[in-house]
Input
Amino acid sequence: MLPVTHVLAFGAWLVAQSKATPSAPTISIFLKPPGVIPPGGSTTICCSCQCDSGTFVLYKNGRQLRSLELRGSRAEFSISSATQEDAGAYSCHYLDGGTVLARSETLDVIVQEFRLPKPVLSVLPGQEVAAGAYVIFRCTIAHAKAVCFLYLEGQIKTFDLLSQEQNYFNISHVHKGNEGRYSCQCFTKGASFKWSAVSKTLDLVVRGETSPPATSYSSLPL
Output
């Protein structure tokens, strides 16, 4: 059996190691505003985490582009006058003290001409609702074969595909975590994809409870 002094010393070493080794934070990457970019357009790649300090390094197609010090909880990388050279798969690495602590998911940036009419996004029962309400988004476009994405700013994922045959998207039990700025964008499939511009945004505000219960997302047929 080890002497008590050795056990205490080992315990103190473990505590020191836990303080010296920072835990890996959860980081995210997203476009602001979200969606496909037209040639000549602009957007911002945002890398975000709940961190007090550190550096984000932006990668494109696995190659390092540049680094930026954290400001608040975010680092932003701007794209202006976009061309096809700006299209690609982007990711963020978070570093503290020169050590990579976390890597984001991959964000696909697409640069394409807009050839479809601009869609219109609406929400029922309205943009301000009570917690627990049933909320329906509808993306409407003047093209019979178009399908659409629903975006929530600050998230990398898009919501279910919406189409003219199934163009409603609903949240069955809305909560504070569903608040935010929504928009939609549509495209058609064929020999090549044809895209619309992104719709005007809608800000969803949820009154009441703050803890997010289980939420059901689904698309509804017409």
User: Anything to note?
Assistant: The mean pLDDT is 83. The CA atoms of residues 10 and 155 lie 43 Å apart.
